[in-house]
Amino acid sequence: MLTREIIAELQRIVGASNVLTSKEDLLSYSFDGTAAMQQIPGCVAFAETTEHIAAVLKFANARKLPVVTRGSGTGLSGGALPSADCIVLCTVKMGKILELDKANLTMMVEPGVTTLQVADAAMAAGLFYPPDPGSMKISTIGGNVAENSGGLRGLKYGITRNYVMGLEVVLPDGEILWTGNKCVKDVAGYSLKDIFIGSEGTLGVITKVLLKLIPKPAAKKTMVATFSQMDHAAEAVSAIIAAQIIPCTLEFLDRTTIHCVEDYAKIGLPLDCEALLLMETDGHPAAVADEAAKMEQICREKGCMEVRVAKDEVEANKLASARRSAFSALARVAPTTILEDATVPRSELAKMIRFVEVVAKKYKLRVGTFGHMGDGNLHPTFLTDERNKEEMHRVEEAFKEIFDEAIRLGGTITGEHGVGLAKKSFLPKFLGDAQMRVSREFRKALDPNGILNPGKMFD
């Protein structure tokens, strides 16, 4: 339990109104977006400046107090879950866009700026910030960088790492470090910014992010194709990639997810299919028209039931919302929704989808599967009830088999959600002894007292 002296010092550093201690207030910060995980922290401290964070970390490090950094708490691997009696260091009040540099196509932001705010600010300047995690309306850039978030446009445009040019990071002892710059080319020394991207709050606290922007695509076309078999949809995806077409979005929903989305959002999706592909191409108008025609042709050759092309931006956004609302739609069906992100090479996607179905039947579980078919990132989502301990045990056993199979097929245990607490038991098998040793040694070198996000990724 945190003493009055500790609370008083935190109040002195960040201001009394920025420290929460009552059980009622702390309850909201006792969980993140991960199902069936909760822990009340010792307190919550809101930082408003880099200096606040530096002072809190310097104080915590001297006292060896655990600190868990938090943005909006939308993570799905338990990465922002508090540890017992920890200080939750929340950065949502650091929400300023500090600079938009059109000459260099960059934007400097504080960590509490939401992904949508970045995207909207870029668009208002005639530019484009592509990363679009499903929670982009509320997820923060600091969290996106810490988790190396992906999104629907990852196939063509890449993930958060591809758009970070520089970072200001406060190290565990309170020292402030800047890494990176506005230069397109820079190979001087180690690429330290890449160490902090995806580090899940275990190496430092991100306080400023220099983001890369790109020109806004001139045109876009959105299409939906339906299939009577998931295999046919997977074959269509493989054929599209083999034809050297890289759409900005190539997503899929299975039958369970389609029905849940339609019941939830009333989009007008067809309900007589086993799989749905959401395809979006963007770029020069002539290239967009050509790619859209080729994708439609390939889908028909692979036995699709129907291809629906959005007639305008309104319909395009409506169709895209079918995929973006998948998690919310599934979450309405059962008390507990456990969404994972096993990822395999694209060539193994159909095999992995079938494996998920077999495992769900084996353990008598209901599953909806959707995800980024273009990059092999699956989201098997089990609909369960965490109060049913026996069923939750079956869910755990099912995921063990799914992650083992993903590794066997040359895939990974997480494509975009991170390791956190939820998947740290699978990490040693995936990384192997040498990578685990180097990771532990690097973490210990930066945080010898182990104050930052203790217990996450590995012990």
CATH class of the largest domain: Alpha Beta
Beta content: 15-25%
Supply the CATH architecture of the largest domain: 2-Layer Sandwich
Q: Which fold name corresponds to the CATH topology of the largest domain?
A: Uridine Diphospho-n-acetylenolpyruvylglucosamine Reductase, domain 3
Number of strand segments: 18
How many structural domains?
4
Measured between the Cα atoms of the first and last residue, the distance is 22 Å
Whole-number radius of gyration? 22 Å
Overall average residue pLDDT: 95
Q: How does the overall form come out from the CA principal axes?
A: globular
Strand order of the largest sheet: 15-12-14-13-17-18-16
Structural class: alpha+beta
Number of helices: 15
Quick one: biggest sheet?
7 strands, antiparallel
Percent range of helical residues? 25-40%
Low-confidence stretches: none
